[in-house]
Amino acid sequence: MIAPPRFVLPNPRGHGRTLDGRDSVVVFLLLSAVILILALTKERFLPGYFFTDSKVIESFMLSGASLTPGDGFQSTAAVFRLMGAERDSVFLPFVTGIFVYFSMVGNIWVANTKTVEFRELVLFVTFCLMATIYMTTLSKDILVLGLLVIRQVSRRALGRAGMLLWLPLLALYAYYFRGYWFLVLIVYLSLTILLPKFRRLRSVGFVVMGALLLIAIVLYWKFGIAADAFRTSINEIRTDNGDVNARTMITPFISGGGFVSGYLNVCLTFIVFLIPIPLILKLSPYYWLIFLTIVALQLNFWRKLAMDLRSCNSRKKTLDTPALVIAFIVVQSIFEPDYGSYVRHLSPFYGIIFGYMLNRIPSS
């Protein structure tokens, strides 16, 4: 049995106090209780816009949803309908809460680390709570989490072969649920080849900009639209409909609507997904908290990647996890309509990001 990582608590007199294994297990048990309570009670005190997608999925379930290629809501509703899930039942948040808990904790439990610093624990708990809010209901993102759990299990059990077996499942998900995942798949496979060849983080930045350029060229050449056209059209409809819930819409940084402005806008969107400066301008403590947590997560993730790129061990690795995370953010830079959706859609990745960050040994 793998021993749990031990938590290091702050000590004003000097070095932090490291909890023993038994006390660390108690912390994990307390976290499980908090997650389950939040999962069961969240809709009583959170604004309704947190659960808009859940209500849409429920409406598709009531109308007899079936798996439909390219229709995320219809196909997600079909899966939950097959499972016999009900939005207002206690069973749904309870089971999904347990699933979220074990997926988050499991990633750091098996990470190559013996201790977790207090600041890392605080950040981890924060993202556990965010994941619980977003995914313990009728949610498209809980299905993505299921995909990532299958990836982790097959990767640990079968190594590289397990990853190859997981790719067709990812393609199947893209076909039925979210077509843009085909782009995620392509960028991901490209990055697994390219990342181990780099020694500096700036090289990764050039590849990201290059990937966005290639996607922008294909969209303009094949469909005659700018790279940010999907986001712009969706937000225009939301504005026309007076959607008051779209508080964090991503507006164009550069006006114009052409190929160049569209490409520059998606590049800038990628950057603000790492450092969401527009959230500071909302003058709201809630958005400031989201800003701080996202920046802390991204800072630690990219710092770990920079260390791995400098490591000789990375030449022999695929750097699979950062490749997948970066590929997802690249594609979201094109399609994501607002920062709230970005944070919610990133929630299935919180666990694997933390597992990667806490892996003290340079690896994939």
Can you tell me about this structure?
Helix 4 runs antiparallel to helix 5 and helix 8 packs across helix 13. The chain is mainly alpha-helical. The chain has 15 helices and three strands. The protein has a domain of 185 residues.
Secondary-structure blueprint:
Layout: E1 6-11, E2 14-18, H1 21-45, H2 52-62, H3 72-83, H4 91-109, E3 115-117, H5 118-135, H6 140-158, H7 160-176, H8 181-194, H9 201-223, H10 229-240, H11 259-274, H12 285-310, H13 320-335, H14 339-346, H15 350-357
Parallel strand pairs: 1-3
Antiparallel strand pairs: 1-2
Helix pairs in contact: 1-4, 1-5, 2-3, 4-5, 4-15, 6-7, 8-13, 9-11, 11-13, 12-15
| Strand percent estimate | under 5%
User: End-to-end distance, in Å?
Assistant: 22 Å
How confident is the prediction overall: mean pLDDT? Answer: 88
Identify low-pLDDT runs.
Answer: none
The residue fraction in helices comes out at 55-70%
Largest sheet: 3 strands, mixed
Oligomer classification: single chain
Please tally the β strands and state the result: 3
Number of helices: 15
Kindly report the spatial arrangement of strands forming the biggest sheet: 2-1-3
